Structures are given as structure tokens and as C-alpha cells.
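Re-running LRC66 protein to confirm reproducibility after the cluster update. Everything else is unchanged from the original entry.
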Amino acid sequence: SECRWDGQFLLNCSFTKISTIPEDISQTAVTVDLSYNNIKTFVCSDGRNEEWMLKHLNLSNNLISELTLTTCTNLRILETLNLNGNAIHTLTLDMPTTAHGSKKYSIADRLLPALKVFSVERNNLNTVPRGLGLLQSLQTIHMSSNAIQQIDLKDFQNCSQLKDIDLRNNKITKIHPDAFRDLNKLQVVLDLRENALTIPLPQILVSLNFFQLEVYLSKNAW
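Result of re-run:
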């Protein structure tokens, strides 16, 4: 009852002290702001399997600690997802492996196909979430102010549309030489400031497109 609905596109529930997501959110809503509340869990699908018109979802500054996005098959036109300022230590995007060693991609193929901006700043992540490559339209990923310790070869695998990566203020000590090699559209910013890097990164930097890319490496341990 404290949420503000414009009757058409915008639902604003910020600073309403709610602990659960309202069940009666209109499926015609384009922007939903649930920031600065006491929400602990977020489940995409409500069981009705009806597609939502939602394009922008703000869940920042809540109490979410674990999140699974593999059920988000009803948010096919969602473009921005803001999870900043939560307590997320587990973020699942990848599909589970079957007993035969293969992965079930029937659902994964429909995982947030329009998502362009994904922000999980100021959380408790210690690794880059596995399965970012399943977000086929992802252009911007912000993961600053977490506890990420290293960047592995497959962390950004298949992220062919990525243009902007913010990894500032983590605990990164190691980056695989080819971690960013196939990101041909990375042309805005690669921010690695305020980490724990101790040696220069020539192999990584040579593989990047310097003519279009800004790389920030200040305030590391070297």
C-alpha cells in the first residue's frame, strides 16, 4: 500500500521498509524500484509463466545474500538489473550439470536475453559469477567493491557484447593472460583500480584494443 504506482509504467517501492516483493505488481510495469528496503530473497518466476513488460529493475540496498537467475525466463525484455549494496555471496547464472556431464541449456538459452546492464557493486562476491556468457546482450558489468580475488580464463567467456567492465576496489591478485582476449567490443572502460595486483600485465594489455579502450590500473600493490 505504500508503493507508488503511476497507473501505467512506473512502480516505486523504495524506502517503504518492505521485506518481500509485492505479489500484485502489474505485469505492464516497465520500471520497478524496490531499493532501500529489507528484501532478503528474490525469485523471478511467479509460477504463471507469463512474460512481463519489465525493462528496469532496481533491487539495490536490500538484504539479499543468495540469488539464482536461472529461473528468470519471464523477464525477456529486462534491460537493466541493479543489485548494488546487498550481501550477495552466491550468484548463480550457469545451468547445473547433468549426470552425463552435459548442461541443460533449454532454459539457459532464454536467460534474460535483453539484459544490457548488470550491476552487483558493494556485495560479498569472491569470484566472478559463472555463466555471464549466457547473457547474450550484456554490454556493461559493474562488480566494484566486492572481494573478488582473481580473474580466470572462462570468467568472461562468450561475453561477446561486453563494452564496459568495472572491477575496481576488489582483492584481485591474479588475472589469466587471456581472460579478456575475445572481448572484441570492449571499448569503453576496463577498470582494475584499487586491487592487489603486484606485477604489470603486458600479455593482457597487448590483447586489448588500445585505440578504443580506457584501462585504469592505479592504486594497486606494484
